[in-house]
């Protein structure tokens, strides 16, 4: 629909001018469509492991009742499927919690160096146990305040760090750090694994999008980066993804320093 509002007063010398407002009905329809697609996708993603679980239960009760070797094998698969369902539910709950959250207040500050140190502290030991070298870069100077919610930012960088460990493991090391410059700071997670081919990069933050599904891929839900994008949008910033296939990937987020952020609002 188009609304035409006359601006300017009658009797003025200059002719009134008109402001055209294009109200976007297709936008509302698209959002509604996204929501129904999302529910359909989420149900599908949950139903797949559930169907597999039911199938194995039937087999264990029936044909394989007395087959001890099959029991062990099927129980392992069932455990994987149950884990997959619980990961999905955790991610779906995270997404919906973020969606219903109030707006970020302009006076909320978080120390981004501390956020990154805390992620490295929580997840670093596990990465080291699995043979990855974890390097912290630029994190031991003084803190850097940005406008943000500490817990949400921890979730962002924990997701990025977990991905770097999961998909970059063949690169042998993972880097988490800060690059400071004049007005801002860039927080990043970098790995040296197989990287991401260019055609996938723009789609990575879509819900449920995964480059490799199934047996060839690592376990995951395809929701991690959409959660990241959501949180960063709330923080009025966004994710930049740079990757050279075969050499690794860098996921970076720019923030303005807190004082600068206040001056601009
Ligand atoms: P998940 O890890 O659960 O699949 P994400 O939304 O976190 O979901 O990631 C989406 C996809 O992006 C992953 O399935 C993977 O294919 C790709 N990806 C994410 N991080 C990396 C990385 N560091 N290196 C290579 N590919 C990545």
From TrEMBL:
Residues 41-259 form the Histidine kinase domain. It is found in: Cell membrane. Transmembrane segments: none annotated. This is histidine kinase. It comes from Aureimonas flava. The chain holds residues 573 to 837 of 837 of the full protein.
